[in-house]
Amino acid sequence: ADLAKADLAVRLDLMRRKTRMLIHDKKFVEAEESCRQALASDWLAGDGSIVLSTRGRFELMLSSCRIVAGDCAETARCNERARDLFRRAGDESGVAQVEYTLGSQFYHSRGEFKKAKTSLRGALSYYESVPDVVMACQCKAILAHVAIERREDEEARKLAEEALDEAKAIGHTLMVGMAEWTLGRCAVGRAASGKGLWPCVEIQAGNDT
Question: 72 near 103, Cβ under 8 Å?
Fold first, then answer.
């Protein structure tokens, strides 16, 4: 029984790695097909924690494929299914990954900044508790960007400064750039108005601010 379980874990890991590579190479059609084949396979039948977590990760990868295709409704459903599977498996890392994905990709791209903030705050809480310095830094940098879209200038500045310090410490060039950009926006806003961030900066924040 132990050997069979180990063999299953190896097979599932190989399937997941293959699909992640396809997404990395931007072969989203092939990646979606791989996800759907995996989710329909007998290997992912059952309710063991390994199986549930793996199903969750395939649902999360499927959501990445669907958002590229512009299918927002299916993207949301994939993330909801993934979050439910991770919770059933007791996989806190998986739940945090869903919250990060929703906040940084789905809600952010739709201008739903209030929801993006809630999701990213949930992810940040987990990554700080583990701790995962890289993911916590990314959450802060994106939260800073969300805060500036919500006209929360002091929060944006504070988060961006924290993200900048952490990104420099770990050599995360992309997050250094994002944090510096946000701090630049803060500086421009204050210099222009003397009061706050937004009088001279027009940003379309959507309905959910």
Answer: no
